[in-house]
User: Fold this.
Amino acid sequence: MRRRLLPLVILAILSLAVAAIAADKVPPRTNDGRNVYRTEAVRAYMEGFEGAFPPAGWNQTITNPSYTWIQDFATPYEGAAAAYIPWQAGFPQYEVLSFDYLIDSAINEDHLVFATQGSLYWAVNANLTVEVNGVEEYNFLNEFTAGNFIWDMVDVDLSAYDGQAVTIAFIYAGDDGADHYIDAVSIDEGAPPPPPPPANDTCETAIDLQEQGLTEFTVDLCLAANDYSAPSGGCTGYSSAGKDLVYKIHLGLGETFTASMQGTHDAALWLVTDCANTAGTCVAGADDTVSQGYETITYVAPAAGWFYLIVDGYGTDSCSMTTVTIDAPVANEDASWSDVKSMYR
Assistant:
């Protein structure tokens, strides 16, 4: 069960506060928040830190050998690895990963694109910057917008360096900051726009579960938008600010509907009767676990009608590849077993 209520013991409160601060410096070991949609076709140069470290052709400046850039396999943006640096207090860090490259805009080599994540709160103490030939072109603290420890793509325009051999340096510098990552470093024509959201991103285009006919399916919530949020303290017990998709089902009087979901994010699942007022018409909801947990709802229809299942998440824009399981509605005593089975042929 997620603990969101503070204990009424002062010592416990202090312990939780210290733990919260520490957790903010070290990210959750998960890929929550990824939105991987780029393809090799647009990359003139690509480094994903999958092989030797530092990679061939890269240089590493080390001032603090125990707390410098290393290869990490726990939380890559894509592939199997990323570049990662842990934080340290009381011993300043100035750790650099760099590579040389000849920029040629004629073949669409005019953008530096990379993925990064870190803590905006702690970046005041130790920050990531990117320099091109010694000129700062990117500052994580000033320019990052995705939120603490959420992967996001950064696009740096290199057109001013067309025709030049440049040194591109990723610099982590400061004292008492937070863990930081970079991955998927490329030279190309710029990050493409994200793909359109799935067709069932809103209630108006909800997928009919009976027409779909699947009792279990997997969806990528990271491709969706955050369109709906359960009311705080309402049917799920909490708000749900994650990315969401919508499914619908028609139930008869007295039919019992059961659905569950599991993802690597903090999942939330809720059922509503009115798409125009989702927050006010939630009839069943679940947000009882955190990442990797199952959320399950069961509902008996008091009258025949359409119901909308919102597959969601608790945290702001949280998402993951999510498995949804649907039990065929158990009919009331007036319906035959063959009618129930026919719903999922």
